[in-house]
Specification:
By secondary structure, the protein is α/β, with parallel strands linked by helices. The protein is built from 11 helices and 14 strands.
Length: about 400
Amino acid sequence: MPDNIKVLLVDDDEDDYIITRDIMDDIPGRNFSLDWSSSFGEALELIRQDKYDVYLVDYYLGAHDGLELITKAVEEGAKAPFILLTGQSDRQTDERAMKVGAMDYLVKGTFNPFDLERSIRYSLEHAKSLGEIHKLNSQLEQRVEERTQELAEAITKLEQTNRSLEEAQQEIQKALQKERELNELKSRFVTIASHEFRTPLSTVLSSASLVSKYKTEQDDEKRQKHVDRIKSAVSNLTTILNDFLSISRIEEGRIYNVPSTFSLKPFVREIVEEMRGYLKKGQKIDYRHTGDHDTVTIDKQLLKNILLNLLSNGSKYSTEGKTVIFTTALEQDTLTITVQDQGIGIPKVDQAHLFTPFFRAQNVTNIQGTGLGLNIVKRYVEIMNGSMEYDSELDKGTTFTITFPNIADA
């Protein structure tokens, strides 16, 4: 956080300004400067000048409300975070505030210097994280410019050759197609990254703001509920970051097939045990192995990533109480892996795009995910010289089958 934090309070009640100023003056160890604007129009003009680090916005602003102001400011490109001030704790208002761009909300008359300082600090950190995403977007745009330059050079070279007009046109079309694909990839990445990061971060902010209010033993259950929400949100963030990192390493050619020899059954049972903590209520994994032996020579880490991803999907896209059937079979030097769930299945119209990066089937809108998992699994399988097939029926489940031939000589 900066040493001197400039804060603008937007509130049509001068008494609220005085109260907020007094609370802010009691924040220890921080240097805050607070300005006040009492009208919608004046506040919007001050926001456009980009002089403040944080904005505290009252829900009621005469003929307008704070959500309108935040919506308008965000549409005009405001980067500093907004914190909504409301008259009462209201989950619906909280969710509406997060949806239009607020980083947090505080209930007027209930927050103290500690609450205010924490909310400002969390909001600034959240805004910084979103800034990093926009920075990454700029870097991707630079890559687009570089690719455009490569395209121009390719055209120049084509003009200097003795190729036929038809061959030249084909090369240009290929380059243009790659350009379009990169633009689409950039757009999908920024859209999905912004949404997927914002959702768990908002959960962390909301739960962190509420957990400190539960201080007695009678509140243990409520406090633990919000702690669990924070842990789950952080786990989601880790998964998202790992997916993006895996895609980046694959695209850069930094994933290698490094086989080692080990016993398959204990290795798989460790993975199944690791998955138990992520299963929904009543779910279980039924693991079975067939074959005369269980010694394989294969890349251990890539295989673990593949299995964790498929088992996680089997749980995620199934309801409580369902079983994921997981089998491994060794016949001579061929390893066959099958993961069968009893979940929502994949619509026929979506199956052709199942392994496309960032693609998500139309029936998973309420289930979190980046649309990268199956693409990563398929590419890992290909790197390991394996093959992958699937069979799915809507509302009955999906079965993935992976085959690794010649694993004894991998």
